[in-house]
Amino acid sequence: MRLRPGSALSENEIAACLKVSKTPIREALIRLVEERLVTVVPKSGTRVALIDIERFREGCFVRLHLEVAAVAQAATLRNDGHIIQMKANLSRQREALEKEAYWDFFLCDEQFHALILKAAGLAGLIQIIEVAKVEVDRIRSLRNRLGVRRTEIVLREHEAIVSAIADRDPGRASQAMRDHLGEVDQRTWALGEDHVLWSFIESVSKVPTKKQFGFTG
After folding, report:
1. Residues 130, 202: Cα–Cα separation, whole Å
2. Which of 18, 59, 112, 154 has the CB geometry, 3.0–4.6 Å to 133, for a possible disulfide?
């Protein structure tokens, strides 16, 4: 996240920076408005959308329930080809972690979850989840920017998920995914417990979030 939420966006400046005409920039901004990543403010212009905790919670909910069900199906349908792909992905995650290449780790993380959906025969859900978790990814980007990382924990959780799928154990796979993604309220409270991160979120949020969600610290 290189632009602070609420930052003004100029078609002319972006076009000049990328050395392209304003037409593709305008088309891209229209797409971003549709995805609610950019807002058009009357008499103020186009701005990066503010952080929306309600959308974060909705994204967590959609992802949790779809991926918990999908991983159980992946375990039921388990085949060696999918396991080989997942283990190869885990190796790339481990390498990225050792190199502190956090962007590479993020990409491997995204690919890992897509592999599970494909293994479940539910590749069509990838796009649905991508759209639903936009705000979740923005928060993840903020965490990385502020140095709030849990990559080692994430890798261990991913290993537990693959182990359960490999053992053809849908119950254990579902629980491993649930432990990995976390319940919606749990995810929200985890944000509140990190005062540096939450203070930044409040400063760029649509609502006085700590008061809204009952935090007193």
Report:
1. 24
2. 59
- How far apart are the C-alpha atoms of 115 and 122, rounded to whole Å? 10
Task: Clarify whether residues 152 and 116 are in a common domain.
Answer: yes
83 with 170, same domain?
Answer: yes
- Buried b / exposed e along 151-184 (16+ C-beta atoms within 10 A): beebbeebbbbbebbbeebbebbbbbbeebbeeb
Give the tens place of pLDDT for each residue, 127-171.
999 999 998 988 888 777 767 678 999 999 999 999 999 999 999
Name the residue range of residue 28's domain. 8-48
Q: What is the pLDDT of residue 131?
A: 92
Rounded to an integer, the average pLDDT of 191-206 is: 67
Indicate if 41 and 123 belong to the same structural domain.
no
Q: Write the CATH number for 22.
A: 1.10.10.10
Q: What is the pTM of this model?
A: 0.80
